[in-house]
Amino acid sequence: LASLNHVAPALQPQTAPAANTQMAALVDRHAAAAGVPAAFARAVVRIESNYNPRATGRAGEVGLMQIKYQTARGLGYTGTRAQLYDPDTNLRWGMKYLALAWKLGGNTHCGAVLRYQAGHAATRATAASNAYCAKVRRHMAAN
């Protein structure tokens, strides 16, 4: 997901401290509701979109958590792709997907990001998943 992420030049990540604080609080709320550690969830959002709710990935990933529309629909989402750009909506469905990855990954950072990035059926770590996990750990250590 993150490796495919690109952002249109006119849509820059939120950089104002207050905006990031508000968005982090929203991430924390959705993480708690989904049973995902907040620091881990914030690291994933930072890597996926740099807290930019308008981020769009090259493979169709959407919003803060760079969730694909079809993935959200597979989890029960019935809204439109455009509605996934709404931070609250995106975090609800993205956290639901991350929570499943967290459980399938044995409640470990690396196991969860492997399944978040490569799909819930993934079981073998790759160079990409190892690099993603290292980024998650760096972001968590910095916060």
Give the SSE order as H and E letters.
EHHEEEHHHH
Helices, by number, come to 6
What is the CATH level 1 assignment?
Answer: Mainly Alpha
- Report the strand count: 4
**CATH-defined topology:** Lysozyme
Instruction: Indicate the low-confidence ranges by residue numbers.
Output: 2-16
**Average pLDDT over all residues:** 89
Strand content: 5-15%
Radius of gyration, CA atoms, in whole angstroms: 14 Å
Strand order of the largest sheet: 1-2
Derived from helix and strand composition plus strand pairing, the structural class reads: mainly alpha
CATH architectural designation: Orthogonal Bundle
Helical residues, percent? 55-70%
The N- and C-terminal alpha carbons lie at a distance of 22 Å
The backbone outline, from C-alpha atoms, is: globular
Q: How many strands, what sense, and barrel or not for the largest sheet?
A: 2 strands, antiparallel
Number of domains: 1
Overview of this protein structure:
With 143 residues, the chain is mainly α. The protein has one domain: Orthogonal Bundle (Lysozyme), CATH 1.10.530.10. Helix content is 56%, strand content 6%. It contains six helices and four strands; from the N terminus they run E-H-H-E-E-E-H-H-H-H. It has helices at 17-34, 38-49, 69-74, 87-104, 109-118, 127-142; strands at residues 5-6, 56-57, 61-62, 67-68. The strands form two sheets. It has a two-stranded antiparallel ribbon with strand order 1-2. The chain has a two-stranded antiparallel ribbon with strand order 3-4. The longest helix has 18 residues, at 17-34. 41% of the residues are buried.
